[in-house]
Amino acid sequence: MITLDDTRVIGEARVLAGLDQNLQQHLLTHGPLPELSREDYVRLCEAVGLRGRGGAAFPVALKLQDLPARGVEAVVVNGSESEPVSRKDRLLLTRAPHLVLDGAVGLAHALRAPHVLIAVHDTAAATSLRQALMERDDRLAIEVLDTPGRFVAGEARAVLSALEGGAAVPPGRRVLPTRKGYHQRPTFLSNVETFAQLAVLARLRSRGFSSTGLISEPGTQLLTVDGAVQRPGVIETPTGVPLTTVLEYAGAEPGPVLLGGYHGRWLAQTDGVLLQRPEVSAGIVLALGSSTCPLGEVTRVAEWLRGQSAGQCGPCVFGLASLVDDFARLTIGDPQGWHDAHRHLGLIPGRGACAHPDGTARFLTSALEVFDDDVQLHLTGRGCGRPVLGVLGGTR
């Protein structure tokens, strides 16, 4: 295991190789970026089964193939990492900006896209990117643009709206950016780590890239590990690494684990769980430990998620508010809160303007299943006897 500040590597460092380097040092570490065609990128992504490293985990080759042969307007790097506990993309933008830029610029040249736009809300990340650009001559129009730091502002269509000067909220219509993206023109948009992985793949090609990780999805992945752990931070691991290995390296306390962040799912048992997409699509592993009140933690996060709503559809405006009330009543032992929570969780999925209400419902449904014993204790009116320590964040 390699350790650098709050970063760790299990196995071989790839995207975390050469942090805090200038352009010359970066090229000595990674080598020159080869010039590849669109067809080259498609073949490479197909060969290694590369998936996007944001929440959707969509196959990159399919996204590339959905773009028209000509007329791609822009390549957009979505750096709007707005979940309080997620740090992997901000770490790359701040400490490995050249690797991210390599992935975006190389793909933009292959697609003949005239613009590279990098959406970011973190000041340190934006500064690092702008300093890196001063060292480069990429023969492209590259802009680093500030976007709001709200949770739903990181949704792809919300990012595009913000880049065009509009509100950073997802529109009601679900149109793919590959068809109508930046200024209603075909656009390739993905998250920060995806571009870093593309830069690694372009250099290593499929055989070198596939020397580690799963056969079905080789390579490495970045995980933000936090919660009840002794060593929180970002870990680079081979795909398919056992969850127990990651928890051991982070010094996690025994207890349930939230996989995938605030739109993820709870696990009561971690033995035999392998970390791969789509299960760990957002790259977040949160250990709960055993000293805090699970229901209180879940309610705290639900309240934060309610406050992050775009406020443009009923499932978010009314549904999430009802769920927060349901869980608050359940926490103090009100049986009607339990019944109302189940009823509302069945009404929300599939009806929102974006994935936010669905993700929140998934998180809460999973909590009711995994913490059933704790729920029963609260329904007695006596509670579980544990304080709410804020292990999962939710108000930062």
TrEMBL record:
<dbReference type="InterPro" id="IPR037225">
    <property type="entry name" value="Nuo51_FMN-bd_sf"/>
</dbReference>
<keyword id="KW-0285">Flavoprotein</keyword>
<keyword id="KW-0479">Metal-binding</keyword>
<dbReference type="InterPro" id="IPR037207">
    <property type="entry name" value="Nuop51_4Fe4S-bd_sf"/>
</dbReference>
<dbReference type="GO" id="GO:0003954">
    <property type="term" value="F:NADH dehydrogenase activity"/>
</dbReference>
<dbReference type="InterPro" id="IPR011538">
    <property type="entry name" value="Nuo51_FMN-bd"/>
</dbReference>
<dbReference type="GO" id="GO:0045333">
    <property type="term" value="P:cellular respiration"/>
</dbReference>
<keyword id="KW-0411">Iron-sulfur</keyword>
<keyword id="KW-0004">4Fe-4S</keyword>
<dbReference type="GO" id="GO:0051539">
    <property type="term" value="F:4 iron, 4 sulfur cluster binding"/>
</dbReference>
<dbReference type="GO" id="GO:0046872">
    <property type="term" value="F:metal ion binding"/>
</dbReference>
<keyword id="KW-0288">FMN</keyword>
<feature type="domain" description="NADH-ubiquinone oxidoreductase 51kDa subunit iron-sulphur binding">
    <location>
        <begin position="298"/>
        <end position="378"/>
    </location>
</feature>
<dbReference type="Pfam" id="PF10589">
    <property type="entry name" value="NADH_4Fe-4S"/>
</dbReference>
<dbReference type="Pfam" id="PF01512">
    <property type="entry name" value="Complex1_51K"/>
</dbReference>
<dbReference type="InterPro" id="IPR019575">
    <property type="entry name" value="Nuop51_4Fe4S-bd"/>
</dbReference>
<comment type="similarity">
    <text>Belongs to the complex I 51 kDa subunit family.</text>
</comment>
<dbReference type="InterPro" id="IPR050837">
    <property type="entry name" value="ComplexI_51kDa_subunit"/>
</dbReference>
<feature type="domain" description="NADH-ubiquinone oxidoreductase 51kDa subunit FMN-binding">
    <location>
        <begin position="47"/>
        <end position="198"/>
    </location>
</feature>
<keyword id="KW-0408">Iron</keyword>
<protein>
    <submittedName>
        <fullName>Oxidoreductase</fullName>
    </submittedName>
</protein>
